[in-house]
Amino acid sequence: xxxxxxxxxxxxxxxxxxxxxxxxxxxxxxxxxxxxxxxxxxxxxxxxxxxxxxxxxxxxxxxxxxxxxxxxxxxxxxxxxxxxxxxxxxxxxxxxxxxxxxxxxxxxxxxxxxxxxxxxxxxxxxxxxxxxxxxxxxxxxxxxxxxxxxxxxxxxx
Length: 157
Prior knowledge:
Largest sheet: 3 strands, antiparallel
Number of helices: 6
Strand order of the largest sheet: 1-2-3
Structural class: alpha+beta
Strand content: 15-25%
Number of domains: 2
């Protein structure tokens, strides 16, 4: 593993342990070249996934992009990072187990919506506002009205 600080190719693993519900290995590394320490994660990848976007383009699936969008939706919400990580791991496992290499962006969006609906209602509405491209307040009202279940009280907090 190359050192991210000095570019040295010869780094040493100092500690390894399971992470993320045993779906990854966390490794603490040391660079003898510059003395820096850093952490890497190793995950099983069942297949290379490609995202088929709405505009017809194809791009490699990016787990970090998925994580960023979910963390943005859950920002300042009372949701533990561990629960978010478990949700992300579950989404990635479901995508990999679909048996397809090309996954539509709609499929990914719907899995995220499903996960956030079970995790946090406000984060669900936040994500939906971007994913469903809400343009005005009426779009929010319609969406929240279809949800029911006291979400209005959560949104007013």
